[in-house]
Amino acid sequence: MEALALHRLQFAFTITYHYLFPQVTMGLALLIFLLKTMALRGVPSANQAVRFWLKIFGVTFVMGVVTGIPMEFQFGTNWARFSAAAGGVIGQTLAMEGVFAFFLESSFLYVLLFGEKRIGQRGHWIASLLLFVGTWLSGFFIVCTNAWMQHPVGYSVLADGSIRLESLAALLTNPWAFAAWVHTMTGAVITGSFVMTGIGAYYVLRGEHLEVARRWTSVAVVAGFIASAAAAVPTGDIQAKLVHSRQPVTFAAMEGHFHTEVGAPLVLIGQPDMERLALDNPVVLPRVLSLLTHYRWDSTVTGLSDYERDLWPDNIPLLYYAYHIMAGLGTLFILIMGLGAVLLWRKQLFRQRWLMWIFMLALPFPFIANTAGWLTAELGRQPWIIHGLLRTAEGSSANVSAGNSLFTLLGFMGLYALLSVLFFFVTTRIIAHCPESGPDTDREATTPDTVTA
């Protein structure tokens, strides 16, 4: 295998594993804030839920930090030419993420975990708000970095080929960044909601910690339904239209749209045949792709074959499948959470053991959907590492051999396997021994300071 392929595989592995954790913490941050707001209004079970989920959040946050650090180093080791060319741009947002967002979320996570009795319920609520802000701000700076690689703005290219940032405001207000950030955050809330409902359903099925488990499950079902619907419309629709307008080759490839058509159909399922440039066994909705793209049934959608082949993504089948897995699972999430929301409104949710089983068994699927979504974004940008400016082959390190990359890749795999075992052990111990309950904790949640806030 060539060095470039191993550079890409190593970064894909490390970032995919890393993102398993931030998507949980970004989703839980909102849900913890909502639960803390309920606790501030005098709901003891909500405060117990906050204490429980802060422990899960803390362990997951540590895993995110540990697995995120190696990616920063890979910019210098595996992608040195990319860093030399664009470091002056991407370094801005990466530094802002560390200085502003990371310290904000890590500081107030400590306060939330260990300072509740000292700062009181109002202070604890403010800390939960700042944790939420810091976590989502961290996500914005990271997504903003990626968005510039997808749609570069506010730059100039110098005589030596390096890229200089001309406008920080343009970088931070990149329309691609805002659309991608909102879509990413909705995906994170989906993950956090399914994690909450899955563990809540586990307790309900076992008949343990019923009051607190039902409390957080109810919050997660409502948030999960809203986020699942928003992931499709408007956030997913806005993102798809940006891809169509700014990366039309990517759009055609991920939709499996090989030939230009008037009144193009939307493909629900099918297998791409790259030799014939066709889909095998397609199931389609006639004219729907034209409608979604241009709001007209008879509009023309340009096919992949109309673009030069050296602009095509280098793994179209994987891109196509990743996109359709994301979209298919997103539809399933709407159905599951929508059904849960209806039953919650009718006060029948926790009587349906079959739905509790669905919640519990569905817990892994948002991780798959979010991973597929990022695969869609990154595979779709190829063959560019900075779209339209720098090809991926020109951004890798010339002095790092295939053997070096393979050695470190195997090392990361072994290390992350050990970390996975440790994370599983710690989280299952938390689940086995929590939520905590008792007169002291309940009384703290219903002090006059809490009720009158």
Q: Would you mind describing this structure in some detail?
A:
The chain has 453 residues and is mostly helical. It has one domain. The protein contains 17 helices and eight strands. The protein has a two-stranded antiparallel ribbon. A hairpin with a 3-residue loop joins strand 7 (384-386) and strand 8. The longest helix has 35 residues, at 80-114. It is globular, with a radius of gyration of 23 Å. Residues 438-453 have low confidence and may be disordered.
Topology of helices and strands:
Blueprint (H helix, E strand, L loop, with lengths): L2 H17 L2 H19 L3 H34 L2 H35 L1 H35 L4 E3 L5 E3 L2 H5 L2 H32 L3 H23 L2 H12 L1 H8 L5 E2 L3 E8 L4 E8 L2 H7 L5 E2 L14 H30 L7 H9 L3 H17 L2 E3 L3 E2 L10 H32 L5 H7 L2 H4 L2
Helix pairs in contact: 1-3, 1-15, 2-3, 2-5, 2-7, 3-4, 3-8, 3-15, 3-16, 4-5, 5-7, 7-8, 7-9, 7-13, 7-14, 8-12, 9-10, 12-14
Q: What's a concise summary of this model?
A:
The protein is mainly α.
Portion of residues within helices: over 70%
List SSEs in N-to-C order: HHHHHEEHHHHHEEEHEHHHEEHHH
Oligomeric state of the chains in view: single chain
Strand content: 5-15%
Q: What ranges have pLDDT less than 50 throughout 5 or more consecutive residues?
A: 438-453
Categorize the overall geometry: globular
Can you give the mean pLDDT? 91
The strand order across the widest sheet is 1-2
Radius of gyration, rounded?
Answer: 23 Å
Structural class estimated from helices and strands? mainly alpha
- Count helical runs: 17
Domains counted in the coordinates: how many?
A: 1
Main beta-sheet annotation: 2 strands, antiparallel
Distance between the termini: 62 Å
Please give the number of β-strands. Answer: 8
